[in-house]
């Protein structure tokens, strides 16, 4: 009689998961102020169409978890995705817009806050930055939110609706780049998707797409940053 020989268990493949960071659509902002975390700033009509375009781009994806910043424009952008994919919208305060001292002000040299010398000390350190929430704190809270979404959607896909600056800082942090940067060179357009691809808990790649590119091209605020 041949004794039983123990067999090695079959190795299990790590789960493949994608987390999409979706920037909200265009906001109705006729005053042209830096609205930041202020309440009452909704999507414009074009912004609503951008949200619909993002939802259409995600309609055939294996999205099982949807979460958004608590700000109204992010919740509005998440709404058509929730309707299309029959998902509820979770809210994560870690996905909120970056804190900024210039919130509620027009930010510019000509007729904006920068013409007042009393505010210039707020600009003394662009590497932190001195005018708002430190870059590293934004990157760390966004990283925590990213990994929580990955865990919630393990083996599938998740969508996190957030804001330009936090998404861009998360990407730079994940890629090991310096967090200080020129805001004019961010690759994070309105209603764009910055997608983080994982094997298990290991990040294997980051991709980028703009499902509302045609609408962004006609938007007067397409170059707006920190929104």
Automatic annotation (TrEMBL):
It comes from the Bacteria. It holds the Pfam family His_Phos_1. Gene3D superfamilies: Phosphoglycerate mutase-like (3.40.50.1240). PANTHER family: BROAD-SPECIFICITY PHOSPHATASE YOR283W-RELATED (PTHR48100), PHOSPHOGLYCERATE MUTASE (PTHR48100:SF51). This is Histidine phosphatase family protein. InterPro entries: His_Pase_superF_clade-1 (IPR013078), His_PPase_superfam (IPR029033), PGM_Phosphatase (IPR050275). Coiled coil: none annotated. GO terms for molecular function: phosphatase activity. SMART domains: PGAM (SM00855). One of its GO terms (cellular component) is cytoplasm.
């Amino acid at each position: 009689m041949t004794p039983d020989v123990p067999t090695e268990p079959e190795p299990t493949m790590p789960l493949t998961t994608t987390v999409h960071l979706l920037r909200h659509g265009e906001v109705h902002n006729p005053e042209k102020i830096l609205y930041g975390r202020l309440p009452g700033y909704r999507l414009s009509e074009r912004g609503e169409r951008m949200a619909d375009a993002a939802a259409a781009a995600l309609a055939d994806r294996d999205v099982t978890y949807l979460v958004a910043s608590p700000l109204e424009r992010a919740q509005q952008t998440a709404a058509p995705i929730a309707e299309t994919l029959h998902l509820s919208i979770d809210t994560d305060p870690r996905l909120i817009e970056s804190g900024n001292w210039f919130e509620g002000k027009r930010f510019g040299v000509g007729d904006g806050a920068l013409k007042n010398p009393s505010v210039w000390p707020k600009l003394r350190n662009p590497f932190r930055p001195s005018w708002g929430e430190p870059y590293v704190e934004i990157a760390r809270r966004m990283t925590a939110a990213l990994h929580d979404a990955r865990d919630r959607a393990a083996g599938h896909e998740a969508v996190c609706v957030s804001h330009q600056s936090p998404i861009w800082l998360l990407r730079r942090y994940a890629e090991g780049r310096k967090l200080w940067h020129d805001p004019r060179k961010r690759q994070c357009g309105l209603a764009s998707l910055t997608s983080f691809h994982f094997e298990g808990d290991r990040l294997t790649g980051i991709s980028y797409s703009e499902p509302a590119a045609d609408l962004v091209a006609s938007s007067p605020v397409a170059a707006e940053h920190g929104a």
